[in-house]
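Protocol step 4 of 6: record predicted structures for both targets in the notebook before any analysis. Target 1:
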Amino acid sequence: VQLQASGGGLVLPGRSLRLSCVASINIVDFTRMAWYRQAPGKQRELVALVTKGGIIDYADFVLGRFTISRDFAKNGVNLQMDDLKPEDTAAYYCNAAQLNDEYWGQGTQVTVSS
């Protein structure tokens, strides 16, 4: 299974970015999909997740600003990021899980700076 993430970049504070992750298999086979991030010198942390049944959860630090959604037509998961802050700067990773396996995409860098 491969996950291909895209959409990162350099943006000004308060602006938006949309990250996309495309899977090499049908996403209905995953028990959950998620986005994590890792800033330099910090541990990787969960940003948002969506379960197979459609339950969504967000980290407190992105609540109300980020939206995770699945795209069944493209076998992917998106992360709409609005009102970006400098502290959102990090490498963002797509993650997907099956019952006994977990998969990671390559990171896509998001830099929020004026």
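Target 2:
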Amino acid sequence: QVQLVQSGGGLVQAGESLRLSCAASGIWFSINAMDWYRQTPGKQREFVAGISSGGSTNYADSVRGRFFVSRDNAKNTVYLQMNSLKPEDTAVYYCKVPRGGYWGQGTQVTVSS
């Protein structure tokens, strides 16, 4: 049974930082790419960042240079470091295993101006 358990998130002011974590179980974590998505009410879930099994990363234009995705294979965990947060980053953030389409439970990030 695949489980993705997210932690982190919360309420911060613009310009501050947060780190999200996503701990995976039930998969061979080290060989899987991992993605982060986000969703706001009334909108489709959008891709934020991804990291390959080899550590290559890619980012949405809206977060490039501010957000950084990393992974710790020893802990079966992927992270999303979010710096210089903006009010438009407010959303529910989800981690995802692209292979198999498994999602985390989501975590709210709210950035006040």
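Step 5 preliminary note on target 2. The chain has a mean pLDDT of 97. DSSP finds no helices and eleven strands in the chain.
Proceed to step 6 after PI sign-off.
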